[in-house]
Design brief:
Elements (H helix, E strand, L loop, with lengths): L11 H12 L7 E5 L6 E3 H14 L10 H10 L4 H4 L7 H4 L2 H13 L4 H16 L3 H7 L1
Antiparallel strand pairs: 1-2
Length: about 140
């Protein structure tokens, strides 16, 4: 069964949201280079995003004063969504990093266009803020 025919109803916005939710399930198939703590296998993107979102909550007392922790958590959840289309780029893979920005921007265009207007802008904005690493929230989320 494909995502396109997985869910449908009379409300187009709800259909878009449910289809997007089904689409992001693909994050569970994107394998990273990082091993799980017990070393039995590599972590996937969904696990990675969940781990760092939880860490933002747990380590909130160490965030710079005035950091919006909820926003940092949101950034952790969305920061790797584009890898559904762009794939994961290992930090030390010099060749893959050459065109990473272009691949991820194209992936963002494709991915976020599948959400309803304002929500697409909101989530893409969180992704872009995380990627820019200029705010307290993005720096804390990345740490």
């Amino acid at each position: 069964m494909s995502i396109e025919n997985f869910l449908s109803g009379n409300d187009e916005k709800i259909n878009q949201l449910l289809q997007f939710t089904a689409l992001v399930d693909k994050m569970t198939a994107i394998e990273r280079r990082t091993l799980l703590v017990d070393g039995r296998r590599r972590e996937n993107d969904a696990e990675h995003s969940w781990h760092i979102a939880l860490m933002c909550m747990l380590f909130k007392d160490y965030a710079p004063e005035g950091t919006d922790i909820a926003k940092s958590v949101q950034m952790c959840i969305v920061h790797d969504l584009v890898e559904i289309y762009a794939g994961d780029t290992f930090a030390y893979d010099l060749q893959a990093n050459v065109n990473k920005e272009t691949r991820e921007q194209e992936a963002a265009d494709k991915l976020f266009s599948q959400l309803p207007g304002n929500l697409a802008k909101e989530i893409r904005s969180l992704w872009e803020e995380f990627d820019a690493m200029e705010t307290k929230e993005s720096k804390f989320a990345a740490s």
